[in-house]
Here is the input.
Amino acid sequence: MIGVRKIGRPMDLKERSYLVEVARGLAISMAHFARNVVKQDEMPTIQYPEEKRVLPERFRGRHRLTQREDGTPRCVACFCCQTACPADCISIEATEREDGYEKVPARFDLNILRCVFCGLCVEACPCDAIRMDTGKYELSGDDRGSLIYDLNTLLKD
Amino acid sequence: MSVETVVPFVMVLIAALLPLSLLPVMIWAERKVSAFIQDRTGPNRAEILGIRLGGVIHAIADVVKLMSKEEMTPARVNRFYFVLGPFLALFVPLVSFAIIPLADSLNLGGTVIPLRAVTLNVGILFVLAVTSFHVYAVVFGAWASNNSFTLLGGLRSAAQMISYELGLGLSVVGTVMVAQSLDLGRIVEHQGGTLLGFLPAWNLFLQPLGFLIFLVCIFAETNRNPFDLTEGESEIVGYHLEYSSMKFAMFFMGEYIAIIGASAVTATLFFGGYQVPYLDTDFLRAHSTGVLRVMLVSMGAICFVLALLYRRYHRRLTALYHDRRRNEARMLGGMMLLMGLAAVVALLFVSPLPEAGGQVVVAAVQMTTLLVKILVVSFFFIWIRWTLPRFRYDQLMGLGWKVLIPLALLNIFLTGALLVFSGRT
Here is the structure.
């Protein structure tokens, strides 16, 4: 059989009338209201997009491919980043190169729609060729194609 | 057209349009006050030519959105009652405004013209009768929707509103006994003057217990927090589940007009209505020219202060925005400056007023007083909503039947005893 056990938690008249606690609650919310009316500048809200949050130094934003001094990509198409990527968002096609280096990417497609911004590609890269230090996080486009970044786009930043 | 026919017409217009024009203000205040209480900034994006008015323009955006939404009528509903529900929800709270005395009666050479839309000597009963009609809006909407959930929601709210009507009616009896009249005009007149020399003779001080009960009941009547189990927007399914577009908006608007109406009734019954504290009508009328001067001075002062604040705001805007929004403060501040200057210029040309003109000025002052009181009580409604959590249903019913009604009866008994012993009956 189901019974109800009453736990003794007696309230005195002051508590049972609620009025004191209601008044205290009202005082708290009024304090917030008054402070925010008087000091509107100090409100924590950031008026995005006019104001932007200051990003931490190591913020992982959109990727970029670094360049050598002659402007060619540092990337040697070793597939380390593609292998490390848990989201499978990088796809590289390698090709040969005549001037001493063995390999360069012919294509380097990075599907930002799949990217989870974990930074493992940056960790994996032996040549410091891929970095996530652009600080760009407003990544949007009109179609899916524009969000698959190719070699030239990634080299530009 | 004589004055006796024009004035009531104007009063009806004011009584109908005042709550409607306060509606966007209320919706704006609800959003902005809730935001500030929760340390947010609230709406500030919608604009017309860069003018945002701190978010008031969002009300217009809302109207456009609601008007252009699809109007859905579920299958096999009772169409007549389905449409009647939202109409009643909007209409009923508007009517209760008609009975509020907006200012003391004009007295033009012997003819007395009351400044309210309807003059009834059973005013307070009319208010109670009309507010109880709000239940019909809910029940019609709930039942006609042909949906078990709305029906349950409707039953829940009907039970709530009917229960709290008892407490509401009983809590008002004390005020009626004090004023010895059911006429709202009489009740307000009775609240002129002072108590013990320093308190305004408001029923708030004469009937503190009655005021408290009335306040709690009026919250339950208008379905506001902490008694908003009728809607319970985020948690429980309410009676207007099946309504969309403008029909839903009518329920929504009706709720806010009910708050304004309830604030007006509260201000009239307990905060002295149109009475300016410490200054009665005769005194104001005797010094009408001075009153006009004080009005103009305070208007000018408010405008100049606002212009200064807008100047400060302008600096913030120009630092933040680089489009047309940055000009808003300059435009509005300029307008304020012009209005302030106009008040100063008008002050220079004030000449002693004729009797009738003086009475109109006093009436304007008293209407402003009433408006301020209404806005303060409305603010209190919003303030409570963003402070207190919602009651459980059994707590709600327990409070209504077991606490408020006995307390209201006690209040009547105490008031009666005091009146008898002080020999005022």
